[in-house]
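protien #1 (seq + structre)
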Amino acid sequence: MEQDSTPRKDLVRIDDQSLNSSPIPKQEVLDEDSYTEALSEIIKRDFFPSLLTLEAQHDYVDAWNTNNPELIKEATRKLTELTTPTAKTPATPKTATVVRGEWDTPISSSGTDRR
């Protein structure tokens, strides 16, 4: 006789609270423009971290070219804010320790390439 692997309903306990509370946070569906804009900001932040400073420098030069004191003041503030070290961004980076990972190409002990 075959045993049914499906649990019987009387043996499964279901709490009303567990049905109402979801571990997944509420998600917002974005339109295409909002999604691509947010994704672009993430890519700029993660893959091109110096881009923000370069844009601030560009704005600073443009402000000087306009001779507008308000634009110059705002561009100077923005550039100073980005280039001033804070607790998050120390003035001098710590010496990086080289750690070999499994993705690194192994170095031959004899110094020759064996193929």
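ok now protien #2
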Amino acid sequence: MSGTAICRIDFEPSEGKELAYPDKNQVIILNVSDWSEKATLICNEVSAPYSIVQYSPCGKFIIATSLEGDFVVWEVGTQEVANVSKHTKSIAICGLMWNPKGNGEIVYTDVEGQLGIITESVKGMTNDGPEQMNTDEMELADNDVDFTGVNFEEDNDEDNENAVSLEQLKKQYNLGEPDDELQKLETASSRSPTPRPRTPQVPLQPSFMPSSTPEHLDPRYLCWNDVGVIRCYGNNSDESTSKSIEVEFHDTTFHSSMMMQNYQDYTLGSISKSALVVANSSQINVIPLAASSKEWSLKVEENEEITLVAASENLICFAMANYIIRVALVYGSQRGVISVPGPIVSMASFKNFLMVAYHTSGKLNSPDLQPIIIVLTYFFLNAIFIGFFILNNITPGINCI
């Protein structure tokens, strides 16, 4: 269910001693100190229930809008209606705001998304607020001094009784130069606030392939498991050296060794009894080990980056830097897409199971630990089952590679 009225309330802006809220076709003002009812504002020309009330920036006026597009402005002190107007379509208003300059302008939006402006909502309001003078100002205006005939001299002639020195007046009343005072105000206003202390950045464990060796080694192992070994020759930082990938199987009766040129600078690799997988940051290449199957490859979008790969008897999985894991069958058909809530650390696959380790937020009572969640996912027919969770904590800055 949804209400028809917004019922937006507002505090008096200067000191917050009053709170106004709409109640049917009237506006109630409460005294915040004891929450007693201070005043009730009513307009006889409006019968529709009010929805929004808001004080003017000076706090001396308050406006309310009804569900039929009525705008009513009261003077809070006298509780008299200062202005009444109506929307041209007589539709409800969903938002309004006084101009902070205090010039009487009001900006509003209706339920149809149209923007409107009310000008001169209160007569006598200028950029400095309502044009009202207090008693002292009125007396000062009535007792203005006539300086006609007074000789204003630029030099400081103390002997001349009719000479008025501006410099002497400045010294007497401690008045500085206008340019100096303006420069002080600009300097004070431009002074930036005290910066907040920066939250220390905890170094996270980077993603890594299980059983792989660091990239700076030559040769290096991309993968070593119970099926075979993937070995990479040629350092990626040296473009002059030839690069190749060698695959050796522990059981030579299952498959003979393989050698391939590494023109694509593959740095990731995984092997199972069904497929050989190699990849770089933008492309994955899968070679099914069955004799009748064809090799296939896939390039990801420009804004995506491959960080991890895993191969099993039934699945080909590759993780992205945007926390997305794509799962495909050995022959290239997409099996599913998984999103994890943190940077992926590592993953491994076995038959229809995929195990993923990723970072999660730290505990409030353990700021010196770096939590890592391990999740087991099971793919069965057209369904995906997420299994148990394991929470591990490691010391920040520790590298598991």
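The chain is about 5% helix and 40% strand.
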